[in-house]
Write a structure and sequence with these properties.
The chain is an alpha+beta fold. It is built from eleven helices and six strands. The protein has a six-stranded antiparallel β-sheet. It is globular, with a radius of gyration of 17 Å.
Length: 236
């Protein structure tokens, strides 16, 4: 077993036990232009969206997803795998769903989104405990009480407050993948229309994306919290 896989198994085990996660923490690695895909991961039999891959990885599945395996170009464009489709950029696509009063309002949502700052040719999405590579982001999809702990974990060393950003769409691709990569900070999302329509995301679930570089420190703190502050909190 490689050192990185051993570490990721340890991180996943601690996160699952201490946070009492319903499913697996998910590892996401965007494959840069010119890079080789990590070995040992297979493409799905049919195309999937990034959000579908994330929630299926939460349930234990693993995916190698070049652009040809992606069926959502809105998500793929947030991950800088493909250009933003014209009808998405103009707002016509999302305005047609009925949440915005005009294409201009939907276009403003798209214009304001965060896009991964490097070109990617695909991604690998799998349970963190099975990741034999260094992820860009680790995500959690669970009830608010479990997602809440990213706040004290984020402020334990430096204090301060934590700010999050979200929109009605693009929870998995922008909020919890692109945003942590762009900002270098965790981001919490309430979910989105696409996730709640196309994936197994439950009505009582939120989602969190954490830059992988922060995971070792988070896990160290979780070990301490498990027998101290967490014993004093109301937990289901």
């Amino acid at each position: 077993m490689s050192d990185i896989l051993s570490k990721n198994k340890e991180y996943a085990a601690v996160m699952k036990e201490v946070l009492r996660l319903r499913g697996e923490p998910v590892a996401i690695r965007l494959v840069r232009k010119g890079e080789e895909f990590p070995e040992g991961y297979e493409e799905p039999e049919s195309q999937v969206s990034h959000c579908q891959a994330v929630f299926r990885a939460k349930a234990g599945e693993s995916f190698k997803l070049p652009l040809s395996s992606q069926n959502c170009m809105v998500g793929a464009s947030a991950l800088n795998m493909a250009p933003t489709p014209e009808k998405v950029a103009t707002g016509d696509f999302h305005a047609g769903i009925g949440m915005h009063d005009s294409p201009a309002a939907a276009a403003k949502m798209i214009a304001d989104r965060k896009i991964v700052p490097f070109e990617s040719q695909g991604e690998v999405v799998c349970p963190l405990g099975e990741a034999d590579f260094v992820p860009d982001v680790v995500t959690i999809e669970d009830i608010p009480e479990r997602c809440y702990w990213v706040v004290p974990l984020s402020t334990a060393e430096t204090g301060g407050r934590v700010e999050f950003s979200t929109s009605p769409f693009q929870c998995a691709c922008e909020d919890i993948t692109a945003m942590p990569i762009v900002t270098g900070k965790p981001n919490i999302s309430l979910g989105c229309f696409g996730c709640r329509k196309k994936t197994s995301m439950a009505a009582d679930e939120m989602a969190v994306g954490i830059p992988y570089a922060m995971i070792p420190g988070f896990v160290d703190h979780l070990r301490r919290y498990a027998d101290t502050v967490m014993t004093k909190a109301k937990r289901d």
